[in-house]
């Protein structure tokens, strides 16, 4: 089989994911990149024939990606994309077995997401001015932190998704799953101030809640740039990106409530194991407090160990 028929199978699978499972454009882009890597590898090995593909060849592919420096989670994602493709081809009657079914990637240590503490969030969210763009930015950042939105969910909001009277916002997340979220007082105030001036920027009939200076729906890249600029102007260390505000929402809420299931629902996680990473963040914070405050943990200055 040449690369063209093989890639036609990949494209058919991607169309299935887009129309039947309604995956987001970002997720489809990841699938496309991962399956392109597999097809390119098999073409280099002269093994581009789905019927003859073996688990041994797929393990070799995973090993090659590992040698190239790809992390365990990224390799696992590539193998997951391959498994999904082969299951699709089995349902289409093109294959009789799935060679990727039992292959696992090497484990990577789980990295905890960077989180802004409450003081730094307050520093970041200090109102910046009366300019319409500043009002828009304030409303966006307050809403992410108030309701735990993903960046794609934020820029995908339309005006009719927001109900300020009942303090609710309706969002569509991963897998086209919808959820209704509460909107906090500070976010409601910032949103009301933005809506007062939105018409100064928005093009006629533009449904997007957040628009650019050109009047069209704001892009994810623009949000990232505006947040990075504000964070640097406020003197925050390191690079601040929108997902850090979602992490801050989750970790601060969990620290206050201890209700993991509620945080899972608010974040829109299909699997609670994804939410459980925030319990590790909370423990990390407690450990730091212990190290700084507990008399048995503090190192006294000028006292040497006798051991």
From TrEMBL:
<feature type="domain" description="Tyr recombinase">
    <location>
        <begin position="111"/>
        <end position="291"/>
    </location>
</feature>
<comment type="similarity">
    <text>Belongs to the 'phage' integrase family. XerC subfamily.</text>
</comment>
<feature type="domain" description="Core-binding (CB)">
    <location>
        <begin position="4"/>
        <end position="90"/>
    </location>
</feature>
<dbReference type="InterPro" id="IPR013762">
    <property type="entry name" value="Integrase-like_cat_sf"/>
</dbReference>
<comment type="subunit">
    <text>Forms a cyclic heterotetrameric complex composed of two molecules of XerC and two molecules of XerD.</text>
</comment>
<keyword id="KW-0132">Cell division</keyword>
<keyword id="KW-0131">Cell cycle</keyword>
<dbReference type="InterPro" id="IPR044068">
    <property type="entry name" value="CB"/>
</dbReference>
<comment type="function">
    <text>Site-specific tyrosine recombinase, which acts by catalyzing the cutting and rejoining of the recombining DNA molecules. The XerC-XerD complex is essential to convert dimers of the bacterial chromosome into monomers to permit their segregation at cell division. It also contributes to the segregational stability of plasmids.</text>
</comment>
<feature type="active site">
    <location>
        <position position="246"/>
    </location>
</feature>
<feature type="active site">
    <location>
        <position position="150"/>
    </location>
</feature>
<dbReference type="InterPro" id="IPR023009">
    <property type="entry name" value="Tyrosine_recombinase_XerC/XerD"/>
</dbReference>
<dbReference type="InterPro" id="IPR011010">
    <property type="entry name" value="DNA_brk_join_enz"/>
</dbReference>
<protein>
    <recommendedName>
        <fullName>Tyrosine recombinase XerC</fullName>
    </recommendedName>
</protein>
<dbReference type="Pfam" id="PF00589">
    <property type="entry name" value="Phage_integrase"/>
</dbReference>
<dbReference type="GO" id="GO:0003677">
    <property type="term" value="F:DNA binding"/>
</dbReference>
<dbReference type="GO" id="GO:0051301">
    <property type="term" value="P:cell division"/>
</dbReference>
<keyword id="KW-0159">Chromosome partition</keyword>
<dbReference type="InterPro" id="IPR011931">
    <property type="entry name" value="Recomb_XerC"/>
</dbReference>
<dbReference type="InterPro" id="IPR004107">
    <property type="entry name" value="Integrase_SAM-like_N"/>
</dbReference>
<feature type="active site" description="O-(3'-phospho-DNA)-tyrosine intermediate">
    <location>
        <position position="278"/>
    </location>
</feature>
<dbReference type="InterPro" id="IPR050090">
    <property type="entry name" value="Tyrosine_recombinase_XerCD"/>
</dbReference>
<keyword id="KW-0238">DNA-binding</keyword>
<feature type="active site">
    <location>
        <position position="243"/>
    </location>
</feature>
<keyword id="KW-0229">DNA integration</keyword>
<keyword id="KW-0963">Cytoplasm</keyword>
<dbReference type="InterPro" id="IPR002104">
    <property type="entry name" value="Integrase_catalytic"/>
</dbReference>
<dbReference type="GO" id="GO:0007059">
    <property type="term" value="P:chromosome segregation"/>
</dbReference>
<dbReference type="InterPro" id="IPR010998">
    <property type="entry name" value="Integrase_recombinase_N"/>
</dbReference>
<dbReference type="GO" id="GO:0005737">
    <property type="term" value="C:cytoplasm"/>
</dbReference>
<dbReference type="Pfam" id="PF02899">
    <property type="entry name" value="Phage_int_SAM_1"/>
</dbReference>
<keyword id="KW-0233">DNA recombination</keyword>
<feature type="active site">
    <location>
        <position position="269"/>
    </location>
</feature>
<feature type="active site">
    <location>
        <position position="174"/>
    </location>
</feature>
<dbReference type="GO" id="GO:0006313">
    <property type="term" value="P:DNA transposition"/>
</dbReference>
<dbReference type="GO" id="GO:0009037">
    <property type="term" value="F:tyrosine-based site-specific recombinase activity"/>
</dbReference>
């Amino acid at each position: 089989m040449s690369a063209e028929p093989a890639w036609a199978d990949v494209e058919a699978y991607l169309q299935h994911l887009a129309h039947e499972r309604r995956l987001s454009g970002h997720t489809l882009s990841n699938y496309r990149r991962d399956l392109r890597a597999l097809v390119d590898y098999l073409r280099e090995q002269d093994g581009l024939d789905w019927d003859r593909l073996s688990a041994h060849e797929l393990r070799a592919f995973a090993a090659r990606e590992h040698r190239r420096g790809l992390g365990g989670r990224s390799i696992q994602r590539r193998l997951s994309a391959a498994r999904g493709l082969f299951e699709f081809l089995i349902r289409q009657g093109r294959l009789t077995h799935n060679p990727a079914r039992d292959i696992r990637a090497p484990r990577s240590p789980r990295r905890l997401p960077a989180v802004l503490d409450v003081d730094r969030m307050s520093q970041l969210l200090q109102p910046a001015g009366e300019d319409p763009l500043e009002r828009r930015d304030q409303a966006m950042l307050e809403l992410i932190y108030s309701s735990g939105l993903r960046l794609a969910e934020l820029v995908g909001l339309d005006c009719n998704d927001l109900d300020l009277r009942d303090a609710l916002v309706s969002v569509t997340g991963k897998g086209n799953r919808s959820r209704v979220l509460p909107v906090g007082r500070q976010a409601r105030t910032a949103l009301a101030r933005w809506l007062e001036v939105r018409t100064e920027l928005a093009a006629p009939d533009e449904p997007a809640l957040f628009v650019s200076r050109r009047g069209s729906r704001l892009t994810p890249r623009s949000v990232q740039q505006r947040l990075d600029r504000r964070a640097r102007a406020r003197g925050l260390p390191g690079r601040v990106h929108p997902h850090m505000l979602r992490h801050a929402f989750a970790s601060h809420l969990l620290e206050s409530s201890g209700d993991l299931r509620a945080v899972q629902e608010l974040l829109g996680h299909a699997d609670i194991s994804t939410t459980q990473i925030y319990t590790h963040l909370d423990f990390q914070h407690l450990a730091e407090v212990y190290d700084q405050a507990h008399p048995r943990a503090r190192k006294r200055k000028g006292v040497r160990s006798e051991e």
